[in-house]
């Protein structure tokens, strides 16, 4: 399994990811980290972009969290 710190985080993508994790209820933090880790391994991801983070929230965030998370990450978008 790849270490998240060894990824190439472009622009504010790492800050976006951390904002998502910080916004999650404690019960869900480990599950979200695990899902991201599995996705990185499955697709052999080496670089994470801001658009990757936004697209992932749009596709996979539960509806009751989606708007809050999109608002958080879009504030951090640099491009």
Average pLDDT, to the nearest integer? 90
Total domains = 1
Strand order of the largest sheet: 1-2
Strand % is 5-15%
Q: First CA to last CA: what distance?
A: 30 Å
Backbone CA Rg: 12 Å
Number of strands: 2
> Strand pairing plus helix content: what structural class?
mainly alpha
Structural features, described:
This protein is mainly alpha-helical and 79 residues long. The chain has one domain (4-76). The chain is 67% helix and 5% strand. The protein has 4 helices and 2 strands, in the order βααβαα. The chain has helices at residues 13-23, 26-42, 50-60, 63-76, and strands spanning 8-9, 47-48. A two-stranded parallel sheet has the order 1-2. α1 (13-23) packs antiparallel against α4. It is globular and about 30 Å long. The protein starts with 7 loop residues before the first strand and ends with a helix. The model has no long low-confidence stretch (mean pLDDT 90).
């Amino acid at each position: 399994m790849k270490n998240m710190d060894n990824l190439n985080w472009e622009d504010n993508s790492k800050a976006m990811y951390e904002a998502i994790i910080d916004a999650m209820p404690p019960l869900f933090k480990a599950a979200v980290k695990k899902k991201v880790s599995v996705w990185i391994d499955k697709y052999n991801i080496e670089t994470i972009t801001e658009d990757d983070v936004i697209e992932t929230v749009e596709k996979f965030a539960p509806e009751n969290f989606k708007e809050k998370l999109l608002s958080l990450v879009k504030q951090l978008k640099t491009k």
